[in-house]
Amino acid sequence: ALPIYKIALESLSELDRKKLWQQGKVKDYHSEITEIVRRYFEKRFSFLAMEMTSAEVLETLTDVDVTTEINLLTNDFLTNADMVKFAKFVPMPTVNEEMMKQAYDIVNKTKQEEEIKVVTEVENAG
Fold first, then answer.
1. Which helix (H) or strand (E) holds 43?
2. What is the pLDDT of residues 80-126, one digit of tens each?
3. In angstroms, what CA-CA distances link 76 with 1, 33, 48, 80?
4. C-alpha distances in angstroms, 122 versus 8, 56, 79, 114, 116?
5. Positive/negative CA dihedral, 65, 60, 39, 105
């Protein structure tokens, strides 16, 4: 099985290839990109991010002890997406591009490398 961060990164890459926002499907783009990050959070940090409001996700991230940088990054990311999804905000193309960059950053800066998992499994077995 692929590590959860690799699944998330591949999903982001696939979304990028769809060119949704470039086709005027901005709301779909923001819905999909936040779903990818929320599903990643569910698997990475073991909480029900898909069922939570953005505020609840941010509060839970604080509880699981992510860095302030990640919390601020996630706050910007979810706030922009919520504006598009719920307030009919139409972002500039640069905002859509920034969303993808932020999603990659969130995953890359919180991922657990396979080596860490292998070492942990070996320690637990012994």
1. helix 26-45
2. 999 999 998 999 999 999 999 999 999 999 998 654 555 555 555 55
3. 31, 13, 20, 6
4. 25, 35, 40, 12, 10
5. negative
**Under a CB-based contact definition with an 8 Å cutoff, are residues 77 and 106 in contact?**
yes
Q: What is the pLDDT of residues 18-61, one digit of tens each?
A: 999 999 999 999 999 999 999 999 999 999 999 999 999 999 99
**pTM for the structure as a whole:** 0.88
Amino acid at 65: D
Tokens of 114: 């396979």
DSSP assignment string, 1-25 = ---HHHHHHHHHHHHHHHTTGGGT-
Instruction: Give the alpha-carbon dihedral of 73, 75, 79, 85, to 10 degrees.
Output: 90
